[in-house]
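Design a sequence for this backbone.
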């Protein structure tokens, strides 16, 4: 949509934007449009992203190793090499800030779509290794940066549920992938894994082309907005971080400071631990279920119900986390639920297939929700775009090393119990639950310090920030060119408090 010169000028005028009047109903309608247009498309992209990275588990059950004459050791390396590329190129998250997202995302998605589809014609282990490495590199440019990108559109207390919507895609994706793999395995006798890669890779290329029209560079340029809604979107961005434009240069000094921030270090450790389980679950769940004496085809189909439960749990937990403005308790609780599931799998004999299958529901229902809340929690801890972008890079850089462990702790020699892998996951999750509770206590202490310096906030301070109301006792009189309400979610603002 082309804007008039007058409309463009208003969208760049901070004094005008901070004085526009709008109702909560108008703001809610704007947020719903973000949900409908932006979140729907991002979820579609993450659906194909997760399918393309994790369908190797289904492909292996469908005959990949047998067709390419691979040993278990070689298969393990196919899993590992993806994460080598994925980890080493986590710095691509900074490109969300440096370049217009509509161009950047379009290039990245088309590139990994071509690589994913190319796996269908691979004939050797070396070719598959090269393609899996490239897949990891290109996918590193998308998923890890999305939580940061969402902060362009949503306030701190709105973002956990939206991150949950985005992250509910992996369990839905895994359920869909399992059902599709079941159908292909059942009806195609010769190399069904090739057709699986082809069917799941081509839609990625199509969606990548659509990114040019469907990915806005910032909130005010989103599709389907009226002129007044564009002004509201720009005003929300200005109130949030004190600036209208979100794509600009990178401050490397903030990156150095992020390296020693204890909040980042705690989240990095927790994300590492959760990724030990998060990455290995979709890859090995079909194999785990198959080793419960189910056929290959049945094992593919039985992976779907646990993932559907995980989707429901993710939406419920992230919604409640936003509603109650609590992060730490939900993260710790989700960790403990997943740890319980893994401990059951580690201790119950293989003959008790019903109990072990039920435990996979606990694993999925705990692992997936805590990822969404943890990602939102990290973003909530930083009110500045530079700090937030570097925090996400560090989180992903360290956290994504978890899959290097997770994909190596289920060797074929441990079949059918996989005790080593289950205990490793359970231990990591339990330790992370304790760390989450400590971090919550630390943030509460920092809030008390800010209360002592600036005075306590009123109970409905968050709602006042979002509606633009002012309160002389709580710092809402801070100005931007003489106007109230800019940068209310920045750490430098006296109204900023950490979400616990």
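Sequence:
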């Amino acid at each position: 949509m082309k804007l008039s010169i007058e409309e463009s000028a208003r969208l760049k005028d901070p004094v005008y934007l901070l004085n526009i009047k709008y109702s909560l109903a108008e703001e809610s309608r704007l947020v719903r449009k973000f949900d409908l247009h932006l979140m729907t498309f991002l979820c579609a992209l993450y659906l194909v992203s997760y399918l393309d990275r994790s369908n190797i588990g289904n492909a292996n059950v469908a005959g990949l190793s047998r067709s390419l004459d691979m040993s278990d050791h070689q298969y393990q390396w196919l899993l590992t090499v993806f994460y080598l590329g994925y980890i080493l190129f986590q710095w691509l998250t900074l490109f969300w800030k440096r370049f217009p997202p509509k161009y950047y995302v379009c290039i990245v998605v088309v590139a990994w779509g071509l690589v994913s589809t190319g796996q269908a014609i691979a004939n050797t282990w070396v070719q598959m290794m090269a393609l899996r490495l490239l897949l990891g590199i290109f996918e590193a440019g998308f998923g890890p940066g999305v939580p940061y990108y969402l902060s362009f559109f949503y306030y701190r207390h709105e973002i956990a549920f939206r991150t949950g919507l985005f992250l509910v895609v992996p369990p839905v994706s895994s359920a869909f992938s399992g059902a599709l793999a079941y159908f292909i395995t059942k009806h195609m006798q010769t190399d069904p894994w090739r057709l699986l890669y082809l069917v799941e890779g081509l839609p990625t290329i199509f969606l990548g082309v659509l990114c040019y029209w469907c990915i806005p560079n910032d909130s005010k340029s989103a599709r389907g907005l009226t002129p007044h809604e564009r002004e509201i979107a720009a005003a929300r961005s200005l109130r949030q971080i004190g600036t209208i434009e979100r794509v600009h240069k990178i401050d490397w000094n903030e990156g150095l400071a992020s390296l020693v921030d204890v909040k980042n270090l705690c989240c990095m450790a927790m994300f590492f631990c959760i990724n030990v389980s998060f990455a290995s679950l979709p890859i090995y769940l079909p194999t785990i279920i198959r080793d419960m004496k189910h056929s290959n085809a049945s094992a593919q189909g039985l992976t779907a119900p646990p993932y559907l439960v995980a989707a429901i749990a993710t939406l419920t937990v992230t919604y409640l986390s936003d509603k109650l403005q609590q992060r730490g308790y939900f993260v710790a609780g989700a960790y403990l639920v997943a740890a319980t599931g893994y401990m059951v799998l580690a201790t119950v004999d293989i003959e008790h297939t019903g109990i072990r299958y039920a435990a996979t529901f606990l694993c999925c229902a705990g692992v997936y929700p805590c990822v969404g809340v943890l990602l939102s929690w990290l973003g909530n801890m930083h009110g500045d775009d530079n700090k937030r972008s570097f925090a996400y890079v560090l989180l992903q850089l360290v956290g994504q090393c978890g899959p290097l462990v997770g994909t190596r702790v289920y060797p074929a020699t441990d079949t059918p119990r996989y005790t080593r892998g289950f205990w490793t996951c359970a231990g990591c999750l339990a330790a992370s639950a304790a760390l989450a509770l400590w971090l919550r206590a630390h943030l509460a202490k920092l809030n008390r310090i800010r209360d002592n310096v600036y005075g306590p906030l009123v109970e409905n301070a968050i709602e006042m920030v979002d509606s633009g109301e002012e309160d002389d006792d709580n710092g809402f009189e801070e100005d931007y060119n003489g106007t109230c309400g800019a940068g209310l979610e920045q750490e430098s603002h006296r109204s900023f408090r950490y979400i616990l």
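Residues 460-484 have pLDDT under 50 and may be disordered.
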